[in-house]
Amino acid sequence: MDRLTEMEAFANVVDQGGFTDAAKKMGISKSAVSKHVSSLEARLGARLLNRTTRRVSPTEIGLAYYDRARRVLNDAGEADALVTSMQTAPSGLLRISVATDFGVNHLSPVLSEFLKDFPDITVNMVLNNRFVELISEGFDMAVRIGELEDSSLRARKLTETTKRMIASPSYLQAYGRPMKIDDLNEHKLLHYSNQSSGNVWKMTAPSGEKRQVRSTGWLSVNDGQSLLNAAISGLGIAYLPSYLYAEALAEGLVEDVMPSLPVETFGVYAVYPPGRFTQPKVRAFIDFLVHAFADKGMENW
Predict the structure, then answer these.
(1) Same domain, 225 and 293
(2) Which class for 266: exposed (0-12), middle (13-18), buried (19 or more C-beta within 10 A)?
(3) Would you state the torsion angle of the CA atoms of residues 64, 68, 73, 75, taken in this order, to the nearest 10 degrees?
(4) What is the domain range of residue 13?
(5) Angle of CA points 69, 74, 77, to nearest 5°
(6) CA-based radius of gyration for the chain
(7) Does 274 score more than 60 pLDDT?
(8) Deepest in the core among 79, 164, 178, 208, taking most CB within 10 A?
(9) What whole-number distance in Å separates Cα of residue 242 and Cα of residue 163?
(10) Residues in domain HTH lysR-type (predicted)?
(11) 169 and 82 belong to one structural domain
(12) In 3-state terms, what secondary structure has residue 138?
């Protein structure tokens, strides 16, 4: 008999808790399911199921075999789906989570081109400044910036961005320019409240030493554009990615507070649910973003 069919029959018996429901799931007779499982046990030379008149349950060996068999069956299903997807144009609803600042500045401008290239895909882009649970909240993928937290999600690097401390000329004139990292303790700091590290700035000293600045800050906001506006208004020093402040810096509205510090570089990642098979619509959008951001160039970040 076919090994995969034997595995499938056995796994379904365990999943469904009996031969009758397993037969319904597979669309075959109960006797056929029993024959497949018996053939599997005979081939392996081991009893995989405890059978009573009231219930069916896996033996210790059967439980160990079930775990491996289920993986094999899942891999086989993903292999079939992969072949099917490669012959079919990406389609369907693509639900994306992205931080408001990045979505407005970088995803929104390229979406029209993506939708022209993939007319069978519809996009629902949710802009928010909180960490979303992709699977439980129904997202296909998210774009995240900086260090990725340990998780079971898969990730692909899209590009990089840099980060600097910036402040308005009026602020620096009124409060002075910090000359070293420790001087920041005497300044008014503007914090991004949704940062997982809290009110902590991680940076590198000119010597290469990794430093942390801890401060309650004068203002905390969960939106980067609002922090930039506060810095432009002279309220304090903000630590922001360059894609937010680049234009204001070019126009002289803000200055690099400590140009002697090494530039901090952060990755921009697409994260998506685990599994060897990536949905075609997700793969298409990630591939598109990789090329779109590569064409943009680091100087625009």
Answers:
(1) yes
(2) middle
(3) 160
(4) 3-86
(5) 125
(6) 28
(7) yes
(8) 164
(9) 6
(10) 1-59
(11) no
(12) coil
